[in-house]
Amino acid sequence: MTQHPDLLVEQKRAALYVTLNRPDKRNAQTPSLWMALHEVARTLDPSVRVVVLQGAGDDFSAGLDLHIMSPEGLPGEPKLPAIARARGEQETANLIGTFQEAFSAWREVDAIVIAAVQGHAIGAGFQLALAADLRIVTDDSKLALKETSLGLVPDLGGIQPLVDAVGYSRALEIALTGRWVTAQEAVNSGIACLGVPRSELKLATGQVVDAICENSDLAVRELKKLMVGASRRTTAEQLQAEREAQGRLLVDLVTPAGFDRSKTHSHDHHHEH
Ligand code: CAA
Questions:
Q1: Is 0.90 surpassed by the pTM of this model?
Q2: Distance of CA 144 to the CA centre of its chain
Q3: How many CA atoms lie within 13 A of 144 on its CB side?
Q4: pLDDT tens digits for range 174-205
Q5: Measured from the CB, is residue 146 less than 6 Å from ligand 1?
Q6: Strands 15-20 and 7-12
Q7: What is the CA(25)–ligand 1 centre distance, in A?
Q8: Atom of ligand 1 nearest to the CA of 25
Q9: Is 222 in the pocket of ligand 1 (CB under 6 A)?
């Protein structure tokens, strides 16, 4: 299992809890953390049905560790401005490509990924939340894309899910202004699927985890693939993907023991395998 001082990874039954664990620095993120995060996603055990991305302490994440951008940099981490100056834009873009994998990987895994967000989720923090399939926010959550005010752009895959959630114009406005998106706006606009009091985040997240795990493992895995690609497939491609997925599921339902009605309703389906 991946080792990183700022990352806790703990499996409880079918749920993997991945915790950014640098609360004294508001869970600021580093490239080495991103390597470790990508490794967790890449090596996910098939028994993991749900991943919960969360932050230790009062905040989800204050985004990129800004010391990376200083001339001194951070020990053990790439010095981004120096690399950009010395190696040029193509090599810098290639390096960022490796960072992006820590974010894009969560759409590619079969497991459902939930971001459980409290407090601040800024820049790379907001983008990590956007990399999840579902977001639960607490009433004290404040999300913002601050990249533009640093002379940069959001580049960790957050733009597409934000545009999908709130539309082009609102997404552009959020990134242009760097303003706070409150929990209420996040829920109303579809960025988050649930808003809860701070004290209930753990409970609410657990309930969503349980609700997902009550359904057929195979159906949930197929469903995520169908949904992830839905807005970018043609109607014909989407229909094909849906009927092929259903074909696989129906074959599983009717074989080898014949049609078992209990399987379609059973809350214990996943225990039967
Ligand atoms: N990088 C490094 N250290 C950070 C940090 C960050 N992004 N955010 C907070 N910290 C550190 C602070 O330096 C401070 O450290 P010390 O105790 O050693 O001084 C500690 O965490 C606590 O921070 P604050 O005292 O500021 O805590 P607060 O509760 O008053 O404020 C905050 C919290 C609003 C998150 C504030 O810390 C803040 O604005 N942080 C910076 C947020 C930011 O601009 N992030 C970059 C976004 S852009 C991005 O992520 C880049 C990208 O994608 C390209």
A1: yes
A2: 16
A3: 15
A4: 999 999 999 999 999 999 999 999 999 999 99
A5: yes
A6: antiparallel
A7: 7
A8: 21
A9: no
